[in-house]
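Q: My collaborator sent me two sequences in one message, no labels, and asked for predicted structures for both. Can we handle them in order? The first one she listed is below.
A: Yes, handling them in the order given. First sequence, followed by its structure tokens:
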Amino acid sequence: MELAVLAKAVPLSEQLRYDTARRSMRRDGVALVLNPFDQRALRVALELRRPGERVTVIALGPAAARPLLREARALGADRALHLCDDAFAGSDVLATAFTLSAAVRSLGDALVLAGARSTDSDTGLVAPAVAGFLGVPVVTGARTIRRGADGTTLSLDRDTARGHASAVVRAPAVVSVGEKIAKPLHVEEAAFARIGDAGVETLAPGSIGLSAGEVGSFASPTTVTSIAEVAPRRRGQRFDVGTVPARAAAALAVLGEMLAVAPPPPSPLPWPAAYDPSLEIALLASDEGGRVAPAAAGLTTHLRRSLPGYSVTAVVVGPEPSAAESRSLASAGARSGHLIPVAAGEFDAGDAAHAVAAFVGRHPQLAAVVTPASPFGREVAGQLAAARRLGTVADAIGVASLAEGGLEWTKPSFGGRTIAGIRCRSTPTIATMADGLAAPATEPRDDGLRWDRAPAPSTVRAVAGGEEVLEEAPGPALESAEVVVAVGMGIGGPEGIDRLRPVLESWGAAVVGTRRVVDAGWLPGHRQLGLTGRWLAPRLAVLLGVRGSINHMIGWQRAGTVLAVNRDPEAEVFRAVDVGIVAAIDEALTELTAPLARLLRRSGPADLG
């Protein structure tokens, strides 16, 4: 059996600079590196390789990526395929996945390994879409992989929305790997020099059985229409003068004023004057277990508020929702419900994608299909995009209707430093969206949704899943916490989080982390906040040692008040919070813990709507 590794050359994000005149990121002089998650995938492939088998690395990218393929060869790959031709330029997620799948198909049956995401685009959709084009199962976010004696059975431990779970799948298959599975390999200069260009093959579209019209911008239904710098939304008051006690006292005075002001109540949901099938959004409202997903109600409300003339249909793959779940979705703004009946535990993401694809086929006028940006949601979205050849937008944070018709989506780009506007010429558009963009509306409805039942689909369940293991963290549940503390790498490690326990108890606070903290294993994956994690709306957010990348800060969009503590006066976080204190974390907490606890009790809870 062949082992194929999908690799990508990514820019060093810290070297990227925004050009205000050109309204784009300057890439000249920016070094390219092998995507760190793909490095891990390569290491796993090399460890899984058995005598007589080959590991082939496949990369789609410019000529400047060739040294990275030489690096992969020096690390132990038997072969490297460089898809490099002018025709490949402008490939979006769909075109990239289609091209990579053609290269994989040329190898015959293969176990395909990839990074769970790339550090530049961060979509998490390429691996599922490749699986969709190949017609094989996909497992994302693998923590461990064990290969059975027969060579084709794989036993895995994988990330889930709330923890991790076991899974079993047979190759050929696509598996993406996360941070925890392995450390990246590092090439030795002697090995790099010895390998030269041997084993690196440059391929054009015809080499993998494709024409120029099937790849690149010609085959990319999505278009980037704008890129803009992220505009600050909060006060950005920074206290960096005087002693730490003086800074903390000044910050507490401002916090007291802010916490005393209740936000305005939410406005009523806009309801379309009449139903128009071309102005309908289908929302995948269920999770991998067939339950109504926690994100479904909030996403329903967000879509309704963002698109006043549109309606939302909740699509459930699984058993019929309970009366309470139906009422919740109806109150959140869903116009109707569509049930694709499958017994719980009898389907996987591939089955769900095929079932939703059939639904799309029966409703060709749909404007969009939205899935939660969870592991399951991304697996469904990628495979659905491949099945229907539809453009995808990953991790969208907003959507608006255009005067000339159609939709424009917004999402962070270039490592979160800018916001991109994206349009799609295919109908419907597939989009993944994070939980927490809006609080679920609770407008009274006479009854719940009436479920339009589809014929029961056939299922294969190529991925057998085990029971989910929930991973806990200090403090109360995130959904009910009025105060949430976020920790960045500046907290110093797991021991720094342990030292926070008395503080969390004093404030009644839950704890979350940045992506780097979660990737380092200091907190479980479902405690990651930001674009690729959770979105929360606490009364108060306290950020400790957080750098302030937009990918993290966007998760605080709905927070009432945001306080940051960082010892670096130039930290980016101070431009995106209400109140900032320049100080070491331990020093600041000495001054903040008791007074802030009293302030929170005195000001009382606030309904953030």
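Q: And the one she listed second?
A: Here it is, processed independently of the first:
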Amino acid sequence: MYVFKTPKARRAALEQSPAALHPAQAAAQASYADVDVAIVMESTYPYLKGGVSAVVHDIVTHNPDLTYGIIHITWDSTSPQDDLYGMPENVVWVRPVYLSMQEHRHDFMAVSSRDLGMGPAERAALADRVFDALYALSERREVEPLWQLIDEGFNERTRTYPLWALLGSKEFMEALSVRMPQLDLSLADSFWTLRNFLSLAFAILGETMPKARVYHAHTTGYASLLGAAAARDHDTSFLLTEHNLYVRDTVNTLLDRNMALSITSEDYRTFDVTPEQRAWMAWWTEMGHFCYPSATLITYLYPTAITEAARLGTDIDKAVVVPNAMVIEEFDDKYRARRAAQELLEQRGDDHTWKLVYIARVVPIKGLLDLLSSMDLLRRHGFPNLHLDVLGPTEHVPEYYEACLAKIESLGLHDHVTVHGTVNVRDMLDQFDLLVLPSYNEGQPIVVLEAMAAGIPTVGTDVGGMRQLIGDELHTRDGRTVGPCGELVVAGDVEQMADNIRAVIGSPELYGTYAENARTRVQEFFQMHEIMSSYNEIYRTVGDITDLGKLTTTGLGDLARSGS
């Protein structure tokens, strides 16, 4: 039903799907051709827009010599399913995978311990094996005992019994009470917590995935688990890209912590949290420990991400930096317009109204409330010629959007802030002098690269890959040094944000230097054709894709050049 090569073919396939077939069953029974690369996504491409989706679309469209499938992990069949990108011809299929047990009720919820085909002693021994495997992973980072259980009890092609049926047995409950006292939950709560974990594992591991030479997951968590399992099942390769650190972000969200704070592998053992929170922290952390060893290569957007990921269990010997990128020629007109605007700005001097722009979703993690406080400080400290345009969706967290509107009202910023909502950002880029990014969490923001390509400086928070993009000196292969193209501030420090905005717009010389460096940094280090060539070589090396010849122009060790 979700297999397609053209929109017309996809519609025809949809019309032929049996009406009575459950969506998860229809997806599993559809025919999927073998592909070079299966990209594994979690609730993003091609049904939701965003930075990661944009990067994946670039990878697909800029590597037309490879065939792709998209494995899209989402909650259930009511989730968004409109193709927002227009799949190119080299995307052969999209395969949905649903996490909700309502999509798997006949396979997961209908079984009982009788379906194991085991006696009491065998069930008791199997329960002990499950806990032995969990402890082997959490205490010694040994993954093979758990993989053996997955092969026996989950993998559709190899399983000899439904492992999830053990959950309802007397023997499992007895083992649970003895083997996992550290959960510190009642027996009933322990059962339901582990049932949640087993149901999610079944959703990811219980169906055979289409065959690909490389399974490329774009996050740890469920995408990584699926990619690692599919590569093991088909004896092919697993590639992992961490655009951001999934475990850190998921745990910080769970605990309502500052999203800029780091997380380590040991935190679930030591944090002062509820038993249920500790169990979920362990689930996400140990999933990373389980999947990292399966990856042939792990790519990161910026160098410091590798350091932080190492504290979560990644193998730094497998890690390389492959940053995001831009087609710089697409911004030539905007760059020329900005150069002309900069000359006019210098002529007008103090009469110029500085056009600041915030480009992001209006959600707490992006920090617009902080930026409004900074705008108020700037106005009260003698910088009245400022205007902030807010570009980005406002509907994702309605209560936060309302709080921002209320703050604009209370601070009397009506004449200084305009909220546009969702717009075509690239069409408007030449209208702005300075990008301001007050986020608490970022990977390597595409919007900053777009602004840089147009010659626009940035004042942003020192999170994720922002330092590599705008703060660090970068060194070209021929020995030249390219300086910063903006200022970095501590996330949440509204006074420092105001001070750094004032420093940039208060010095024409500094502003001009940053504007020039912004464009140069994209030209020298973040060019799309170079980055996409790196991905192509990675795919061919990791997946041994030899039909068009293995590319050997650079070694994998050279791919970190842009992060130097």
